[in-house]
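INFO batch 0412 | record 1 of 1 | parsing
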Amino acid sequence: MSASADSPARKTPVNVEVPALVVKHRGWLLVGVMGAMVMQVLDTTIANVALPHMQSSLSATQDTVTWVLTSYVLASAVALPLVGWLVSRLGTRTMLLGSVTLFTLASILCGLAQSLEQMVLFRVLQGLAGAFLGPLAQTVTIDTSTPSERPKMMALFTQGVMLGPIAGPMLGGYLTENLDWRWVFFVNIPLGIACLVIIALCMPRTVGPARKIDLLGWALVAGAVSGLQLLLDRGPSQDWFESGEVVSYLVLSLSCFWMGVVHFAAARNPLFPPAMFTDRNFLGGLLFTFIMGMTMMSVMALLPSLLQTIYRYPVIDAGLLLAPRGVGTLLFIMLFSRLMAKSDPRMMLACGFGITGFSFWLMTGWSDIMPTWPIVLSGFVQGMGISLVFIPANLITFATLPPAYRTDASGLVNMMRNLGASIGIAVATFLLGRDIQVNHAELGAEVTRLSVPFDLDRITAYGDASAAMIAAADGMINQQAAMIAYINDFLLMAVVSFVAIPLILFLKSAKSAMPVTKEAAGSVPDGMADALH
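INFO prediction complete | emitting tokens
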């Protein structure tokens, strides 16, 4: 590491089967970083089912209590672009320890919050700390593995990422019903402490060149992402662009985005290394990560309300019916990770989007009265498709990208997944509400004397029972209108999944990975420079 930048030794290729980060207790280290990431991912969904209880406890309205979720996502989105610069300044070990510590403390404060203002503040702290855990866990997972081990390690990482959205609603529902909503935050305390101890003992210190911070670039990215996030969160409740508030968010986002493009093209030391964006596989990986986040998180947001409002399942039962999706993902991840080393990831990615689209198509055949097996079957098939999408997408994204860019790339990948989820959930929710209104009007117009179990011409003769009859008929129309709206959303997700398949043709083979050099390896642990020869 003492060689100068111009030294020929810096250009000498190293053994590609030696990981960029050599550690003694890799298994324990991966347990620590993956546990920290699962803790962060879990908190993106675990608080959803507790919102009604928080609303009454914190004296919030239905409109303002959603800031408990929005503040967390928004803080994460703003902090993510800084991960590469902070790692270059502080090192991966210090960043991991600091993030886990702050996240755990913020979780304690969230559980102790006595007002909505306190909760939003503590959720911002939690989001800022948690933003770095996903990219750092992904970087450590990749850096501690050799190219031949990478499919298996990406399978392990995928299991951690998928565990949060799947287990979150079930765990949140159980804790809320049997203990208290505050335990959805207190549950992070033992996990956070365990991860902190493991990382402190197993993660070596790293060294690397300190980078200058591009404050203007970060401000522009933060403004673009924040404006978009606020637009998506506030748009449905403010009648979208009929509101000056929502229009101002749109202007902010577009202005910052345009100025950001110009700035990154002209800046001497931009926030993100420009060389990353010349890699076609990296750009394609960002696109597919965006699509995956959009479809996966949209359906996870829609299904709990569908299962509880249309099918009348209790909270815990609704959570259990979402479990087959996780079972399918976890079962097929390890199987597909073995096949990945022997096949083209692009073909696996195409099959994954095809299977995911097929699962959404199965969901378009649902009705408002049906047994549970179609829900279980479509969820299991969807889990299989997700496992086939996630691993190849990650492999393709990082296959031809030099290791020095991995931390920045991981931050961008996580940001694109969050943006995809935000946009997907906002679009799906907006279309659901609009379609329910349209369907209700169309179905109501088709109501005739033959389609109701009472005489419409003599409705006033029933006395007080007439109002109940009208309400019952309107309830049936509402249920049918909502079911059609859900099916329309599932159809849209199927179309998006199928449309993504032809785009895979623009990717290069992930097997054409660049040879690792000491220059590309970036930061390595103290005393490990010789191991990279």
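INFO post-check: Residues 406-445 form the longest helix (40 residues).
INFO record closed
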